[in-house]
Amino acid sequence: MTKPRILLADDHTLFVEALQKVLEPEFTLVGSVGDGRALLDAAPRLAPDVILLDLSMPLLNGIDAAQLLRRLVPEVKIVFLSMHGDPTYVTEAFRAGASGYVLKRASAAELIQAIWAALHGQIYVSPLLAKGVLDPLLHQRTSPSSVHATLTLRQREVLQLVAEGRSLKEIASILCVSVKTVEFHKTRIAKQLGLYTKADLTKYAVTHGLVSA
Predict the structure, then answer these.
(1) Predicted structure pTM score
(2) Of 72, 77, 78, 95, whose CB neighbour count within 10 A is largest?
(3) What share of residues in the chain are helix, strand, coil (percent, to 5)?
């Protein structure tokens, strides 16, 4: 019997190495990537059955990466493996197309259970999460406090890269657009959020999970 193929997306090397040892008996590990942009490149090429995806990753966060993956590899199952248990993050992960959400402090057995549930077309939510809080949120169309309800995908991409300290020229190169386009998006973001300094924009990005503190 062919083992399901797993792609790991996490920027913490030691964690990925430990995870590989846990998963290898039941799954085929086709690769690992350390940022969201690399994930978008690797997923179509490696054709995994399941992607284990961290929420906070450089260049492109996990939720926005998941939205783009739905277009690139619509058949792949996405299971978030994150330290963030905030119901808003969890809700956005499922809206982005996740099949499962597991906290990093969960047991190896739970993670394997979540992967198999995803492979069988089921939804898995870690019992460590407050499902009583999560369930109502999953049925709401938008979350008022969510950055995903406030900014477009492109605006979130620009905001994350600004918060990571990238120059306008670097951002333009990463997103394959002109510097003027980046400046336009940055100006629109500032006006929409009412935040006009880099420090304030960075604080907002950290608060809403686009970048790690």
Answers:
(1) 0.84
(2) 78
(3) 50, 15, 35
Segments of the chain assigned to CATH 1.10.10.10: 151-207
Residues of the chain with CATH 3.40.50.2300: 5-138
Helix residue ranges per DSSP H, 73-211: 87-95, 108-119, 131-138, 147-150, 153-163, 168-175, 179-193, 198-207
- Of 79, 64, 75, 74, nearest to 123 by C-alpha is 79
pLDDT at 142 over 50: no
d(CA 71, CA 36): 15
The Cα–Cα gap between 129 and 110 comes to 13
The CATH superfamily of 5-138 is: Response regulator (3.40.50.2300)
| pLDDT, tens digit (0-9, with 9 covering 90-100), for 16-61 | 999 999 999 999 999 999 999 999 999 999 999 999 999 989 999 9
151-207 CATH fold: Arc Repressor Mutant, subunit A (1.10.10)
Vertex 113 angle, CA 109 and 119, to 5°:
150
Yes or no: say if 101 and 82 are a contact pair by the CB < 8 Å rule: yes
**What rounded mean pLDDT belongs to the chain?**
89
Per-residue pLDDT reduced to its tens digit, 78-93: 999 988 888 888 888 9
